[in-house]
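Please check this.
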Amino acid sequence: MIAKAAITNGRGDYTIETVEMFLPKRDEVLVKMKATSICHTDYDSLNWNTPLILGHEGAGIVEAIGSEITKVKVGDKVILNWAIPCGRCFQCDQMNQNLCENNSPVTVGNQTSGGAISKGHARLSSTKFKGKAIQRSFNIGTLSTHTILKEQALVKYDIPIPFGSASILSCGVMTGYGSVVNSAQVKAGSSVVVLGTGGVGLSVIQGAKISGASKIIAIDINPKRLKMAVKFGATHTIQADKDDVNLLNAAEKVKALTQGRGATYAFECTAIPALGAAPLAMIHNAGTAVQVSGIEDEITIDMNLFQWDKTYINPLYGKCRPEIDFPILLDLYEKGDLLLDEMVTNTYKFNELPNAFNDMLAGKNAKGVILFED
């Protein structure tokens, strides 16, 4: 069959091209994409030095299945999951499905500078461009009208939710919420600081609110984003100064809001390497700093920031267990506790992908979403 896909040359450019896609094998599923949300990782992947189909957050409808597929059927609505668990390795046995030793595009395999491609779970020959097999970002390549996946990459859902809202669960919301609930295990009545209030940061804020945090302090340089932070649950905001090295001045303002000692938890969601150590300055002794945004650069940390008994963790994908966590998130959405429709600031047609990237880079969106036309 013929599909359309956004393909990067790995050197900063991309185009929407026609690709040839084969029908699924016995253990595969063909999904017609309905929505793909956009994040900074998608933009970064333009420079991963390899041609690939872009996109790693999405939702769609099952269009065809292989003979061994049992969990989904044709017509089912599904959310795609990029951390595809094998269910057999050491990490999967420990319920660390996000760290699967066989299939993770981040922790194993043929890693690029972005670490988002592996040889573990993708049948490259399922999709061809100009007669040659082409890889897919995070092994799923959601910026395509169709994609072929293993069953473990899909979670079926039945609740009434727009495809655009469902698509943002696929990575950004899960990463933020899961970092709070699964990784840091924020306690009710505690104080939380969130550095950076983009889509992931807003999801951290929502996770903190759902966890019962009594004080949620949002920090950003963009006043419009801080207004969004309040809408999603921030109790206090601090507008940072771009010249505030390591946000140490902002840290003093956090201490002023927390009886002079700092917050119990601080989450870094900026993806700015220079701020990798910043959450340590925001927490009190024995507090927990969480590096959410996946900084991979070498950074220098003043060990005085660790005094005393502070913990620094670097979770991947909010310790996502897709078949457990996605239904929880959807249930919270149905109850009105998790705002998803409100996070989709703008939607775009497939050919408006440049506008979606530009708006994201300008900080206009909580989440921008590509909607595929029938």
Q: What stands out?
A: The chain has two domains: 2-158, 176-316. The CA atoms of residues 84 and 153 lie 5 Å apart. DSSP finds ten helices and 19 strands in the chain. The first strand starts at residue 2 and ends at 8.
